[in-house]
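In the laboratory, one determines a bound structure by crystallizing the protein with its ligand and collecting diffraction data. In a computational setting the workflow is compressed into a single prediction: the sequence and the ligand go in, and a structural description comes out. We illustrate the idea with manganese (II) ion.
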Amino acid sequence: MLPTMNQETKKFELPALSYDYAALEPVIDAQTMAIHHGKHHQAYVDKLNAALEGQPGLTGKTLEELLTNPTGAPEAVSMAIHNNGGGHFNHTLFWEMMVPGGSKEPVGELSAALAETFGSFDEFKKTFTQAATTQFGSGWAWLAFQGGKLMVYSTANQDNTLRQGGKPVLTLDVWEHAYYLKYQNRRPEYIEAWWNVVNWDKANEFYLAAK
Ligand code: MN
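The predicted complex, in structure-token form:
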């Protein structure tokens, strides 16, 4: 589910995970999950809410609206909304895109679409892995439905598919905070291991909703 606002408080909130912090081991260790979700993601939510305070014109807007359209707020506020709203959006997706044990291979219409677009699942994996590995510095790798087709690319910092008119289907966090405790500088090892916890049922749901 995409991030929604608490309709009573008009605040964004940290979503609960559907699995324990230790559930993705050995691919992602419990300490990394606890810090990543409980500290990093929480901070994006808190800073997003702080940036929106005092901006009555923006109260009640969805996160997609805030990230897709110019906010009309002063530059510093707008930047804070973009960075922290992006962080909230991206991480919410990321947690959902993983499941203990993973489902190993794409399912449903997404499976057929990946084969048609990239030639095979293996070729798709190579393309996505390449995008994730070569993203310089912090960022995200994406499988997006954009311009009527599936595309793979990476974005810097907390940018995402929305401003490019794309809808997310699958995403991977390649900020160092996502893997450094266990993998240190070995980002390729983290990416290779991550395929084992991808939630392909969820990716297929996002694909069906996007197309
Ligand atoms: Mn992160």
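The first strand starts at residue 5 and ends at 6. Keep in mind that any predicted model is a hypothesis to be tested, not a measurement.
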